[in-house]
Design goal:
Shape: globular
Mean pLDDT: 88
Number of strands: 5
Low-confidence stretches: 1-5, 8-13, 238-242
Bound molecules: adenosine-5'-triphosphate
Helix content: 40-55%
Strand content: 5-15%
Length: about 240
């Protein structure tokens, strides 16, 4: 893949379910990528163009706050040891457990993923009901989901997928810089994620994030224009509403 290139030519020639996108719908993009690849940074840049961002990590945080919808099930499954004094999920404790216990990771995902998916569907419904002229109306919607290609039922929520990718050494350096984690821990997290090669194969579009933030901004702007072109495409005759 050439640095900074998107995977498919721009314009009408867009792969993925975008071919089935009807202009009366809201276009939904699924954004993914490995740890520290730049998903949040890219999502923020799209948000500046008015794109509505629905972030699975933020939803997961809400679900696991005090009184969150996942807390009762987490308590029943894992016990008091995984809640902190306030009754919220004890993230550090849980992270350590799921690192070393794959069955526990599956149990946690079985609790969280259906709840996250339901909230995303609800957010998509809400966003889609804003009339086009409303100040709340976004040109299109973006779901940020690290496990977009592997967690059940998420890929289907989007018309097409966009992966943020960067070289492994840059990715690791950025996470060390951001989180202060050691390289070994970061590599373990990466190993538990959807392999980069698979994501590169499955994504409809790719933004390469090996350069500066300014370079990234330009790529986001180009990708945004491509999505706007798709949104503004007149209905194809065979699917146009009478
Ligand atoms: P995670 O999967 O852990 O949530 P992420 O994919 O959302 O991570 P970001 O948090 O957006 O990744 O980016 C990781 C770090 O790299 C952040 O500190 C961000 O500011 C920085 N970063 C992202 N892109 C660039 C860039 N092009 N130049 C310099 N720093 C960058």
């Amino acid at each position: 893949m050439k640095s900074g290139s998107t995977k498919v030519p721009q314009g009408d020639n867009v792969t993925g379910n975008v071919a089935n996108f009807h202009p009366d719908e809201k276009l939904v993009i699924g954004l993914t990528g490995g740890i520290g690849s730049g998903k949040s940074t890219v999502a923020q840049m799209f948000a500046e163009y008015g794109v509505a961002i629905i972030d699975s990590d933020l939803i997961a945080r809400e679900l696991t706050q005090v009184g969150g919808a996942a807390i009762a099930q987490i308590h029943t499954t894992f016990g008091n040891a995984y809640l902190d004094e306030s009754g919220a999920l004890n993230r550090i404790q849980m992270r350590q457990r799921i690192f070393t216990d794959p069955a526990a990771k599956l149990q946690l995902e079985a609790i969280l993923h259906p709840l996250i998916r339901a909230q995303m569907q609800e957010a998509l419904r809400t966003q889609s009901t804003f009339p086009a002229h409303s100040q709340h109306a976004a040109p299109y919607l973006m779901l940020v989901v690290p496990l977009l290609f592997t967690a059940t039922g998420f890929r289907e929520l989007a018309h097409c997928t966009l992966m943020v990718d960067c070289d492994e050494d840059i990715q690791i350096a950025r996470v060390i810089n951001r989180d202060g984690l050691d390289e070994q821990t970061i590599r373990r997290i990466m190993a538990a994620q959807t392999p980069r090669a698979e994501q590169l194969k499955m994504a409809d579009h790719i933004i390469q994030n090996n350069g500066t933030l300014t370079a990234l901004q330009i790529l986001v702007q180009q990708q945004h224009q491509l999505y706007l072109n798709v949104c503004q495409k007149p209905p194809r005759p065979e699917i146009a509403k009478k």
